[in-house]
Amino acid sequence: MIYTILILIVFIAELIIVQSIIRTLLSLNSKIIKLNNYFVSKQEIIKEICTLSRKISEQTIELSITYKKKFSDITEKFVLQLLNKILITILLIRFNTKMVKKFRRSLFGKIVVKGFSLLQNMV
Predict the structure, then answer these.
(1) Which of helix, strand or coil describes residue 106?
(2) Which of 30, 32, 56, 109 could make an S-S bridge to 103, C-beta 3.0–4.6 Å?
């Protein structure tokens, strides 16, 4: 008899738990239905937003390609100018060393070099 009463109490507790679970599920179901209706009503706006974002993405790709081309052209011009300046500098240094050697070998150059060496010794 005691076991029957205990089983009856447990059964009633389980029924109460099931009832609260069912109420919670029904309230969640109504909220999900409302949310679904909201998304269905806003579907056209979402579709427009998606198409706009896709078009913006396509334009960004096109702009990045043109930017890449312009950047590579500017970089190439800069490198060519830098190489040009370096080559001119090397040429001028080479030309100047030849001129300095010719100047030192000349009579006037020898006199000037001796004058500078005497000046260094005096200082």
Answers:
(1) coil
(2) 109
What type of residue is 49? I
Contact 120, 114 (CB under 8 A): no
Angle, vertex CA 16, rays to CA 14 and CA 22, nearest 5:
100
Give this prediction's pTM.
Answer: 0.41
- How is residue 91 written in tokens? 């040429």
What's residue 119's pLDDT? 54
Separation between Cα atoms, residue 101 and residue 90, nearest integer Å: 17
Task: Report DSSP letters for 67-87, one per residue.
Answer: HHHHHHHHHHHHHHHHHHHHH
Distances (CA, A) of 51 to 24, 26, 48, 56, 57: 38, 36, 5, 9, 10
Q: What is the pLDDT of residues 28-45, one digit of tens each?
A: 999 999 999 998 998 899
Gap between the Cα atoms of 104 and 96, Å rounded: 12
